[in-house]
Amino acid sequence: MYSLQYHIVWATKYRRPVIIGSVEADFKKDIREIAEDLGIGIIAMETMPDHIHMLVDCRPQLCISDAVKVLKGTSAWRLFRSHPEIKSQLWGGHLWNPSYFVATVSDRTREQVETYIRGQRTKRGVGGRPRKKR
């Protein structure tokens, strides 16, 4: 038995706010299909207009850097195919910033990370920027 969990975050190129509306809905559908094909379980996921947070569960044989490469590459290819209009908002035709963040998650920190990811939308305003205090 195994339990390898990772918190993964990556951003759009130039932090462009393109993950909105039907693009967001299609991204979530696509990323779930891609993850399932890789044998990755998505525990929690939240999209912001310019970045994505995921808490995933993987088998030990899966190299996380390879998995992230496939998640980013395949999702970009699918989104460009179904939403060619987003290319006009990006220079050079790339959807994702080449970098990403990955951290292992333990049994002790899983609940904290899951709560953090699920709370992204409520903590942030439009475009992923902090909401103004009133």
UniProtKB/TrEMBL annotation:
Coiled coil: none annotated. GO terms for molecular function: DNA binding; transposase activity. Transmembrane segments: none annotated. Pfam families: Y1_Tnp (PF01797). SUPFAM superfamilies: Transposase IS200-like (SSF143422). It comes from the Bacteria. Residues 1-120 form the Transposase IS200-like domain. GO terms for biological process: DNA transposition. NCBIfam families: transpos_IS200. PANTHER family: TRANSPOSASE FOR INSERTION SEQUENCE ELEMENT IS200. This is IS200/IS605 family transposase. It comes from Intestinibaculum porci.
